[in-house]
Description:
mainly alpha
Amino acid sequence: MAAGGRPAEPEVIWARPPRAGRGPRPAHSRESIAAEAVRIADAEGIEAVSMRRVAAGIGAGTMSLYNYVPRKEDLYELMVDAVGGEYELTAPTGDWRADLLALARQTRALMHRHPWLPRLLTPVYGFGPNALRYLEHSLACLAPLDAAGPEKLELVAAVNGTVATYVAGELALAERARSLPWSEAAEQRVRTAWLGSRLATGEYPLLAGALTGGIDPVPGAGLDMAAVFDRTVSRLLGAWAP
């Protein structure tokens, strides 16, 4: 073991004892540490999360925190798995497409509650206790699908990747709207007018045709984003052919 409780070799945080070394019963837990880190990230963004801030939040010394969490990357892994415990994993219905769409909706809501989450998603953090519970449930939902195990896991990954990309776009639009010095409606009017002038030239007949039907051409404006989300994921699931 290196100085400060940091491991001298690679290790998985879940395989490590909750606290390094012997002595009295630990004063803190991984759960409380992760909860404090999540609280900070929810309130101030992932950039605000540091070992010092988390230690102060739980009333511990910064160096003593390394006895519980050797690296900041381990702290991130604890955070990702902690919010993964928010899923409500009900019994599969037998309709695997409906069940995966329901899970995708939960994932979207989870990412909106914790806007930092899409930035931390990585396969490396995909095998904590709550992640394993989620994957086991996903495979139970996919039991009616005639496909091999690796193909089912590929489908779960494809759905999660689609959700993360979609939510990242939603969050970016929301952040931009908050930073505008004028109303979002005023911005929308100006951009719609400019785009309309371009389409009126006749240079983009296919695009002009695609934008007819009452849908506002400005991305994210005037759209039911939840309905668009459902259609996006449903098309992915409907097209799945292992």
